[in-house]
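Researcher: Last one for today. Full complex below.
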Amino acid sequence: MLSKKPKNVILVGSGKGGVGKTFLACMTALALARKHPEELVALLDLDVEGPNVLSMIGIERLSRFIQEPLLECKTVDGSLKWLPFVQQNHDNLEVFSIKPYLDFALSGNGSALDRGKVWRELDIRQAVEHLFGSRGSAVAWSRPPVYYVMDTPPGVGVVMKSVLDSARARMLPKLRMMVVSTPKKPSIDKCRPFLGTLASVREIEVVGVVANMVIEAGRPAAPVRKMAEDYGHKFLGSIPETLEIERALDRGEIPMDYAGVVDVVL
Ligand SMILES: Nc1ncnc2c1ncn2[C@@H]1O[C@H](COP(=O)(O)OP(=O)(O)O)[C@@H](O)[C@H]1O
Ligand SMILES: [Mg+2]
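Model: Here's the assembly. Have a good evening.
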């Protein structure tokens, strides 16, 4: 049961996909796990559109999970739950992804796995409620998570609304969101209206905006900084675009050299 309330629920969001939300979410979860070794950090991949937390944080390398995406277990009270994935180097970081959950658990036999099934809004709402809702999580976290980090799909869609509903039902403290954008025009053009919408969502406090994929010589962070200022938010710093970062992420390793940008939520 999720009786103990988490101290901090951190969402990572953006108006656009492919800008580094997952990178930032994984970095935040790792930084929290390092800073609070006694507390459990739960990293939830809620990006139904492009879930990539498991591969980026190195969990898909563990072949057991590729063959067996979810493992069921029985808890002491007899209810069936799903075991979270464990990041091997951090025993206080547990990870769960909505995508295999939708594909495997809700479809009953795993037949929809990786076949690009289009999930109904209702299924997604139900999955978020299962993972995070008022009746206790369907995930058998080893202990009640003190910190949640949630990687969300781009924009304010059904996932975000479901998280808000679940948060209201559990009367959680304010949800804190880090917004990430690249300095490219397509990203700025989608993040501005996203920040505009967030301004009217009482339950979410935007803690700041991170610029990712910055190239000092050619693609400086200025447009992201300006956007943050225009909406009255803090600019949290920038992460360069480098081949080293790209290759590390492809290998399932999270470079922590720029983790200073997430200090605000630690
Ligand atoms: N700072 C960076 N430098 C180089 N490549 C990056 C950087 N940030 C992200 N990437 C690349 O972009 C891809 C998408 O990042 P991701 O965090 O999955 O974005 P999102 O979750 O917003 O879709 C990564 O797999 C990686 O290849
Ligand atoms: Mg992603």
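Residues 14, 17-23, 50, 52, 212-213, 239, 241-242, 245-246, 249 surround adenosine-5'-diphosphate (ligand 1) (CB under 6 Å). The mean pLDDT is 90.
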